[in-house]
Amino acid sequence: MSSRNGEQTNKGYATADLRRRELGHRLSLLYSKCSEAGLVPPEDLKADLESIVQLLDSGNKDAAFRYWIPESTVVPDIDWAMKVVNRLVALVESLLPRKAKPGRAVKSILTVGKPRPRAERKPPDG
């Protein structure tokens, strides 16, 4: 971070700009902004990445991933999406300065299964 005219900046973007809600959860717009900023995925990743972005963007209409909506949605296969996202993360990491430190985690989601009676539980390995 540096100071530009008294304003905090991060990688050339003003912190105030990053806090605006212009992008919201619109992945297509975020992907477009990243492309404008110089993100160029290799050809073998580009088509899959654009498909995943489009599917997630359209599937999250009216915050459908967060709230129930009466319309059906379409989402990408989780294995396909994870492979594409992992390649995107590796690409972005390769573009960051070596001294960049990851930020702190701000949220996690823990999925818990239905409790079972003790007699049905498997003993821990070890």
Task: Looking at this protein, list some descriptive labels.
126 residues; mainly alpha; 4 helices; disordered N terminus
Describe this structure in words.
The protein is built from four helices and three strands. By secondary structure, the chain is mainly α. Strands 1-2-3 form a three-stranded antiparallel β-sheet. The longest helix has 18 residues, at 78-95. It starts with a strand and ends in a 31-residue tail after the last helix. Residues 1-7 have low confidence and may be disordered.
Could you write a compact summary of the structure shown?
Helices cover 40% and strands 7% of the residues. It has 126 residues and is mainly alpha-helical. The protein has a domain at 24-96.
In the sheet with the most strands, the strands line up as: 1-2-3
Q: What's the order of the H and E elements?
A: EEEHHHH
Largest sheet: 3 strands, antiparallel
Head-to-tail CA distance between termini: 47 Å
Strand content: 5-15%
Regions with little confidence, pLDDT below 50 for 5+ residues:
1-7
Radius of gyration: 20 Å
Multimeric organization: single chain
Strands, helices and their partners?
Blueprint: E1 2-4, E2 7-10, E3 13-14, H1 15-19, H2 27-36, H3 43-59, H4 78-95
Helix pairs in contact: 3-4
